Amino acid sequence: MIRVLLADDDPLVRAGLRMLLRGAEGVEVAGEAANGAEVVEAVRRETPDVVLMDIRMPVMDGLAATRALSGEESTRVIVLTTFDEHGLVVEAIRAGAAGYLVKHAAPEEIVDAVRGAARGEPALSAAAARALITHAASGTGDDRRAERARRRLAVLTERERAVADAVADSLSNAEIATRLHLSLGTVKSHLSSALTKLQLDNRVQLALLAHDARPPR
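The line above is the sequence of Response regulator transcription factor; the predicted structure tokens follow.
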């Protein structure tokens, strides 16, 4: 059973999500929170598998709450918001979110995202995916962020860094195996090791970090 915490300051939104998830097989609502501070407390009390997190909330917003939960290995955060600005998508993924959806997403997309996040898979709406692609293609970023990214990546072995660069190029594990002349199992091993060393939750965060480390185009 996948246990989900609903985090939104609008009780009507929480009620709608509650009804949606109660109709999904293998999913249950573990609790609710109306602000970011309540989210952090509820996660540590209820240990849900997934949090559906709004961004604009009082006391502590969703991005700050996501950062505060970045060390909770058993809980995955999916940002679910009305805002789909490119900057917010990138900031949410950097904060540790495993996914980013807009509230007008189809009900089945939200349920699929919850199930995917529980399996450790990133869940991005089409708009969020485009935002990350645009960010990567722009090659923009400040020198300090690039230097920080390079220092973090320095802990990786040569093969792990090559895998990280391939992930940043949006290659699948099979495509990485072909590019680097490795077995699929070896690619998965290097990817898992890189995520562990860098304390990242998913390959989307790894791709962003690798992009940040690249020189401007």
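Note on the example: The chain has two domains: 2-134, 141-213. The first strand starts at residue 2 and ends at 7.
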